[in-house]
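Quick start: what a row looks like.
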Amino acid sequence: MSVLERKELVSSTIIDTKQKLKSEQRRLLFQRIKSNKAIVTGGIIILLLSLIALLGPLLVPHTPYEMEVTNRLKAPSSEHLLGTDNFGRDLLSRIAYGARISLGVGMAVAFFACLFGLIIGLLASYYQLLDNILMRICDGLMAIPGVLLAIALMAALGPLQQNVIIALTIVFIPNVARVVRSTALIIREETYIEAIKSQGASTWRIIALHIAPNTISPLVVQASFIFADAIITEAALSFLGAGIPAPDPSWGNILYDGKVVIFNAWWMTVFPGILIVLSVLGLNLLGDGLRDLIDPHITKGKKRK
């Protein structure tokens, strides 16, 4: 066997070994996810709610805006499975369409809050001057209760769906920025970062390629909790009349319509309330499971207790 053939044999062996290691790592990760009851339960709940949001409006027999005044406040029946509201609109249709709005707002808020929070946290962790400015702004925003801040922003911006997303994003950015900053400060002091600096790497290269990727894991966990909080806060805003404007349905403004007739039409508050509880429960379970998966020390500490 020639030297060239030996080199080719060694390189092919190395490639095969790497592929086997990657497949084994994927298998172990899948086993850990499958054995984590919180991730499985939360994932199933969120998957079912997502299917309701995506497919529900295509399957329901009525539109959420179709009013039948003669059928107002009808109890659940074969024609209207979840009953009707105080304008005679089919509640099942409004809840299915409302799932799109409520879950869509929550997802958008989680995405934008994590995106801007990541940028702010990274800049604050690396530049002392920006740290003093940005963190004091975050402290000021966090000193105001989230719902009150959201109501104030909605009063200034106006009752539109995109304004709800903007207001809630501003509310949750400080929390994300603080989480990212605390993680980035630890990573910045690692030995390999010092080695990269000594090789002449630019500041932006270090932040973008070496610090930012290592903050993604806690950021994903934070995103699941923000998703849940955003759904609750949007429902609270809509319940108070400062969220999604009528006649567009969301779980919050369905509750707002049902509070007046809660003793005569219980279905208007019970069914959207159940979906809000399930969505928040599923997201919190998913977040807890992801946190245990990402940080195995937490799981070990729970087992010791």
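That is the whole record. The chain has one domain: 37-62+81-300. The two ends are 60 Å apart (CA to CA).
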